[in-house]
Write a structure and sequence with these properties.
Elements lengths: L1 H23 L10 E4 L2 E3 L1 H17 L4 E4 L13 E9 L1 H5 L6 E8 L2 E9 L4 E6 L3 E4 L2 E2 L12 E4 L9 H12 L4 E3 L4 H9 L5 E7 L1 H13 L3 E3 L11 E6 L1 H11 L2
Parallel strand pairs: 3-4, 10-11, 10-12
Antiparallel strand pairs: 1-2, 4-5, 5-6, 6-7, 7-8, 8-9, 12-14, 13-14
């Protein structure tokens, strides 16, 4: 456990330093400096500098580890027996570019194939959430717990639009209509890492999105699970740290969401 404590401390340090760097950027990059990776999918030097800062800190302490980072090393694959870091240096870049306060730094550590540490730093609010395998999910000294809501009519659900995979839009709109008509509301803030934080904190009763990458979900998945929630894909498969859909919530709301999404 001592090794995992050290990994957690380093992950917290890296996430907080990257978040501090992002907060220090006083002038937002102008549109001419926005790189375009795909449809409405932007990247800037701020993303790259944040990831470089994180990578330097992590590799300094664990030089034999591997980093799977959204901007600099998206195609990296960790060894089956070893330490893999899954890094999103700025989740919610479009929000950041518009000054909309919903963006985060997300770092997870996978040890010998097991999701072991997850940290999400809410940059604009200067709040950090963390979880360790079998150690609970926390915000500072406060232990996190998913909501106890079991009635969909009382539930608030988070979501994300399939803006990178517009071919999924018809399916998504059907899902949206069915869930909207059965719940108290749906929210879309634009940062999957923070959406999963909201599930782990009980602010959202559930969350779904049809297409996410490993760095979008790795840290948040551990937070939700350690807060007593369930995270799977739309087929109920628990291996979600990959490209694909995700469904999260407390046990009752997760079960209900799966039923609605697979009708």
């Amino acid at each position: 456990m001592g090794k995992h404590t050290d990994i957690l401390a380093l992950t917290l340090d890296a996430a907080q330093r990257a978040a501090g760097y992002i907060r220090s950027v006083r002038q937002l990059p102008q549109p001419a400096a926005w790189g375009l990776k795909g449809t409405s999918d932007f990247v800037t030097q701020v993303d790259r500098e944040s990831e470089q800062l994180i990578a330097e800190l992590l590799l300094r302490e664990y030089p034999d580890s591997t980093i799977m980072g959204e901007e600099l090393t998206p195609d990296s694959q960790g060894e089956e027996n070893g330490l893999l870091w899954i890094v999103d240096p700025l989740d919610g870049t479009t929000n950041f570019l518009h000054g909309y306060p919903a963006y985060a730094v997300s770092i997870a550590a996978v040890v010998d194939g097991r999701l072991t540490v997850g940290v999400v730093a809410d940059v604009s609010r200067n709040v950090v959430y963390h979880a360790t395998a079998d150690g609970g999910a926390w915000c500072g000294e406060q232990r996190l717990e998913v909501s106890g809501t079991s009635d969909p009519a009382l539930a608030l659900i988070g979501t994300g639009f399939p803006f990178k995979a517009l071919d999924q839009l018809p399916q998504y709109l059907r899902n949206l209509a069915n869930i909207l008509c059965s719940t108290s509301g749906i929210r879309r803030a634009g940062s999957a890492a923070l959406d999963l934080v909201d599930v782990s904190s009980g602010r959202f009763d559930g969350f779904w999105e049809l297409s996410l990458a490993p760095w979008d979900v790795a840290a948040g998945t551990l937070l939700v699970r350690e807060a007593g929630g369930v995270v799977t894909d739309t087929d109920g498969v628990t291996d979600v740290v990959r490209q694909g859909p995700i469904v999260a919530g407390n046990q009752e709301m997760h079960r209900w969401l799966l039923e609605v999404l697979t009708r």
